[in-house]
User: Fold this.
Amino acid sequence: MSVCSVAATAYVVVQMTAVAIRQEQGQALADDAKAYDVLLGYAARHPDWSDAGDTVAALARRTGHRIVLTSQGRPQPVADSAPEPGVPFRPPAKPTAVIDPLAVDPDLLPRSAGDRIDTRAVGPFLLPRDESAALDSLAARLRRCLRETTGTDVHIERSPSGRPRLVPATTSTTPGCSTLALGSEPTPTERTALTALNTLVNACLAHRGAPATTLSLDGEGRPAATGRWSGGPLVSSCLATSRAEQLAPYVAPAAQLYVATPGRTATTFFSLSPANKARIAGSAALVLLVTVAVTVLAGIRLVRPLRALTTAVQRLTDGDESAQVRVVGGDEIGRLSVAFNTMAERRAELERLRKAMVSDVAHELRTPLSNIRGWLEAAEDGVVDNDGELLASVLEEALLLQHIIDDLRDLSAADAGELRLSTVPVQVADVLAQTANAHRADAEASGVTLTVTADEAMAVDADPVRLRQMTGNLVSNAIRHTPRGGTVTLRAQPVKGSVRIEVADTGTGIAPDELPHVFDRFWRAEKSRSRQTGGSGLGLSIVRKLAEAHGGTVTAHSTPGAGAAFRITLPLPREAAR
Assistant:
């Protein structure tokens, strides 16, 4: 946030400074151009700078700057709007501009002519009063004629030489007004000046080996070349050079212009005005204030949910399983809050499962231990005889206890990822046959028929001991929950690159709402698969862990009243799958 504040402030200051500099530059250029234009007009109409003091003083009052003019090559001012008594003028290295009506600077005066000669410099083409009056009378008559004849409303403008012209321009072929041609012929003064200029131009052309040309006046009273070669570069160059030579005695010599702030040394460098300085400082202060406010608000918005998270973590550490935080927004803090709530819910669920498992383990271990203790106490008290039947009962309970402990050990190893498998190619039919033989006596005692259906050539990569353990648990579970006269079937078949081993019974089945829980530890159906049927409640959980360890799955399918089927799906070896 600090970096953003500094960057924002720097950006605004830079932008405001750039705008202020552009404003100052624009204003400085405008002032320079104004001073340049006024002084250039003076130089175009005067042969020297002797009377320029009043013009310079008026210009300084208008622009608010100090105006200094010096002769080229000499630091002595020819005009100074604010001289300092007793202090010699020390001009900077570079002047603001050079005032020369015969070499106009197009940057300061974009409307200047192509030959860079100021249009106000007319020299010998300046009309005397009588010729100008005659042309004015002719222009007024032509204007009146055009208005009466065509309804055209024009007005009269005067060129720097004193020759009038109609604006907008009109031709002399208007019916009834053709005899009042304006500007078709030069006056005697213009003819004399034009002849002298033509001589200079032709001398220049002859010196360069070019044919002579003839000059005339254009529509604005300026000399222009006519004839076949009038548009060539030599003619334009000679005309510009000759005009400068002809006008030189009539215009002021070139002078250097310096524009500066009063009380400061004349220079071409500008400084920011107090208004712009105040604007920059105010903008920077406003940005800093806004940034500080945004920073404070963002800090409050960031700290509040973090504080709530800290409190919730402390509650969770203290054992409060209901610790939750309110999720606000979808930013990083919001996602962190969602993750914390999920973690807290998962922790509460794991704690519930842990307590339930401890309770179930204690219950399962208590039953055989209580039976063993009861038989031994009865024998000690002489209630029962200490004979082989007693030993057989105690041994049966001890074996059940050992079975529960072995199941818990297998599950613990599977949960820790330490369940080791010795995988070898195994014939599925052999494993199913061995499982059926091992449980046939129990099946016959329970009145259940046990059948096996499997392809002799079907094989998988598996741990034979663990595979028999999986099928044995399923067969034992099926026999236990199949009523007398029922059937338990073991079958195996290939299914899409895998082997499916199915153990199906014809018992009462499992209800749909209980089916998703059959692989949970210590779970039993409340009715058909109650604790009265025996078993530790861990067999199916072990089957699932062993199937997953082999890279396979186990699923349960049941229709109430029509039995249940448990299917182990194991991948075929790569060679067989191909």
